[in-house]
What we know:
The structure holds two protein chains of two kinds.
Chain A: E1 2-13, H1 17-28, E2 33-37, E3 51-53, H2 57-66, H3 71-78, E4 79-85, E5 95-100, H4 102-114, E6 119-123, E7 126-132, E8 135-141, E9 145-154, E10 163-166, E11 169-172, H5 183-189, E12 194-201, E13 204-206, E14 216-218, E15 259-263, H6 266-274, H7 297-303, E16 311-316, E17 323-327, H8 335-342, E18 353-355, E19 358-365, E20 382-384, H9 394-412, H10 426-437, H11 461-471, H12 477-499, E21 501-502, E22 505-506, H13 507-511, H14 523-526, H15 531-562, H16 579-588, H17 593-598, H18 604-622
Parallel strand pairs in A: 1-2, 1-9, 2-6, 9-20
Antiparallel strand pairs in A: 3-5, 4-5, 7-8, 8-9, 10-11, 10-19, 12-19, 13-17, 13-18, 14-15, 15-16, 16-17, 21-22
Helix pairs in contact in A: 1-9, 2-9, 2-11, 3-4, 6-8, 11-12, 12-15
Chain B: E1 15-18, E2 27-33, H1 37-44, E3 45-47, E4 60-66, E5 72-81, E6 92-98, H2 101-113, E7 117-118, H3 123-130, H4 136-160, H5 163-188, H6 199-228, E8 230-235, H7 242-250, E9 268-274, E10 277-283, H8 293-307, E11 311-317, E12 336-341, E13 357-358, H9 367-381, H10 394-414, H11 423-441, H12 446-456
Helix pairs in contact in B: 3-4, 5-6, 5-11, 5-12, 6-10, 10-11
Amino acid sequence: MYSYPKIYDVLIIGAGHAGIEAALAATRLGCQVAMLTQNLDTIGQMSCNPAIGGLAKGHIVREIDALGGEMGLNTDATGIQFRLLNRKKGPSVRAPRAQCDKKAYQSRLKVTLENEPNLDLHQGNVVDLIVKNDQIAGIETSLGMRYSARSVVITTGTFMRGLLHVGMQNQKGGRMGDAMSTLSDILAKLGFVIERMKTGTPCRVNGRTIDFSKCEKQEGDADIPKFSFMSDTITKEKDDIFTLNPWADKLFHMEQLPCWITHTNAKTHDVIRGGLDQSPMYSGIIEGVGPRYCPSIEDKVVRFADKERHQLFLEPEGRHTQEFYINGISTSLPYEIQYDFIRTIAGLENAQILRAGYAVEYDACDPTQLNRTLETKKIEGLYFAGQINGTSGYEEAAGQGLMAGANAALKVKGENAFVLGREEAYIGVMIDDLVTKGTIEPYRMFTSRAEYRLLLRQDNADLRLTPKAAERGLVTSERAERTASLQKNLDEARTFVAKNNFQGTAIEKWLRRQDVSWLDIDEDLRKQLPSSSWEMVEIDVKYAGYIKRQEQMISRTKKLENREIPKSLDYSEVRGLKVEARQRLEEIRPATLGQAGRVSGITPADIALLAVWMEKGQKRSQK
Amino acid sequence: MGESLPEPGVIDDTIVAIATPVGQGAISLIRISGAGAFELLAQVFFPASGKAADIDGRKAILGNLRDARGDNVDEVLLTAFKGPRSYTGEDVVEISCHGGILVTKKVLETLLAAGARAANPGEFSQRAFLNGKMDLTQAEAVMDLISAQTELALKAAGEQLAGRLGEQLMDLRAGLLALVAQVEAYIDFPDEDIDPETGDLLVKRISGIHQEVSNLLATADQGRILREGARVVIFGAPNVGKSSLLNLLLGFDRAIVSDQAGTTRDTLEEVINLRGIPLRLVDTAGVHRSQDKVELEGIHRTHQQVENADLVLHIVDASEARSDDGTAIIPEEGRHLLILNKVDLVIHSDWESSKGVRISCTETCGINDLEDAVVDVLAKDGEAWGNNLVAINTRHKNCLKRAKLDLEAAGKNLKQKGSTALPEITAMDLRSALDHVGEIVGQVDAEEVLGEIFSSFCIGK
Lengths: 623, 461
């Protein structure tokens, strides 16, 4: 056994979207970081669709950016189509979405990591965790290498006991073409509850063989929504990191590629139904629980039998590659069925399948075994992020990765934890949901999960989060200063609209009307504020009454959210607490009374009993 | 989303509860506690002195409690205690009102409508403990109280929500959930072909649910009638036989009957059981043109009684000509029975073609016809009497009222000029409505909304 000479502060297992943000967050906090991956060529790989963002997910990426993360910048640098979704709906439910050049995306991330001075990349397959006195101490690889670390973040994606299904055939692997990991065996041995999850991906076809004339074109937006507040720092000078979209001559993007829309039809559905007997889903071979929001095409055909057609999006996987991703047709049917049904679809009659669609089953850990910092309750210094926590999606993984990496680093440095509340960020909603309620299917973020949706907008992500991140040292001073000046502009704009009149009324009051916008204001008045300030202040004014309502809701729950439950609390001693309530609370061990109230099956009366009990303990200790 | 949890004792909202045993005592005590207690009272309490309410916790104040419409609910005595020198350690107001279930509940409802929250079991004691008003040895007693009262409340609620009413509430919840899912799906899945249910269609669905809530609230009144008796107000000019009718229905002399007009200067209430329906009979001062101060007050009260009545028995002297004597205030349509008294005497030509029920209190005739007529009118209120034997209580009613307001807000938002109603605002109002209904029949969490979306729509880009 060879021990690597360097002792790391934070060691990251996995180099996907969660691992990358974890590693970078820890380096930003000044830690010595190691990252281990089975294959350095698949760093930041988009294993499924070539897109970042969308509703709620786009919000998360904006938050990651505001917290100093890399995902937003990398998307801006390698995106090949940008759209702002829900443009016609209100500002809180608008979100950016981008198609990315898959190769460029992951290649740029690899280079970014390589250039990080405090980060060492290692290729290796982790086979064991070194734990001393319930405290993580390091890891061992299959080559007999031992790496010591003060904290470890596990971001294994779909790799733990990954099993890939195409029809009745299956093979071990974390992704088609890659090996699987046995790490979940070690976790089970350490006493973690392991769950089995499932997800799937569609087939990819060669664009040269698609008849686009039979498809409907979907263009990107002319007014490009950017993910990063810092995208103007993406330049293409001699020493800059590779990019598709340099910022030059005040132009961010050069040329966008379209996506294409087509549909399945009755014939497609007939072929699919004919193949159901060879479906690993329907024959019971797959045990893992799949996501309801991302059903396979066979699921759609069976569950929504009366639907005559299903919409499909043909998404380019890159600027130069001919590979197209068929969004909406994820499947684990046998290759020959895929071959047949693809050819029934308008535009795909002669499509050549490059890679077959498949389902992947993998091991995850029940996330209620984690604290709000994403540290495991069982083993100190051990953190989980991404699909290992039962989530799905690059953005969800990256958001957790950032928080896990930051908290691992803060803990090593002996600093307070960094936890975001449900009223502060989608990332806060997600982590609170996971550690409080767990999940039975791969968890995806939706805006409907956020009770304070009007406050958690993509447009105010920087204002919401950058000051907090700056306080913890997570962002550059340049970003912090920019945000401060953005805040100053908004404050000035607020004063301006309150003090100045338009059409005989204060602008503030006039803008409240739903049928007007700041663009309707006379030019000489309009010119006095930059358009970005107008946009911010208009949202402010139009939402004002509703925002106030949400803020009142927050202040009502604040006391409970701030009331920390002692870690040592013995629930069996709490008088009057029913057995079921006691068991749930013992399992979850919520950090605050607010979190306790969200544990399923816990009633207000249970919280009342806890509050009295905690007060009693406090009084006793004062004596 | 609304308040997903009432947070007992840990947050300082204002709570209210009836402190005296529910019954027919002479005086009921209603207690209200929280940082906003004084402010809340100032909205609804009007001192007898005529000055603005100055609730400062130094003296008891006499005055009137008025509801949102400005109608008097009751004359009450208010005793304020400034925190921390109070039972709970917070600002506390104790309101002494007239006893009797109805008055007490009206006072409670007025305070709930003004923004107070119905206290949870044991919550006053809990707050007292948390604010250091009780010593350590009392903590366990408080905890026992909370768990015992919670058990009782759960049991009572379970009994109440069994049966048809519970089903109606569950239907309402399901309808609202489907509506929320529709709007949320429209928001969260812009790339799926989900019909944007907006504009008229959505307004129609919302008003449909609004109607359901209104119907349920109506059964609340019906249930109240069953529990507390229908308020049947006997109304008419002086000396037409109001008190005699009351006595006739009661079977003994309760009201002072005399030939001198204006004998009943106040209102009298008695409960009888008429063919299984409890009636709360209210005799009133005769309405006529008077200068007498005491009589004027009596007449004023009569008008109030008529307004709050489930049924008005408008009695006239059929032997006299119809006169414009001040009885022409119009009782609510359909809840008004005209009774022609003294039909043993010669009926005046003015009344000959009247469809009024003919009785004679002195000869005790026509009573059966009267009873038929009363049952007819009251039974029209709802469906058959036996159908809704369990009805919603004050807390449920309060929740439904809030849900109703949310639905109205959602509807109003959608009908706004420019029709740029934002779906997330509609969703906020609808989810608040769903939360309020959820307080009665089980909270709806985000997961359930998602479940509804995925079972109704084929999502899967």
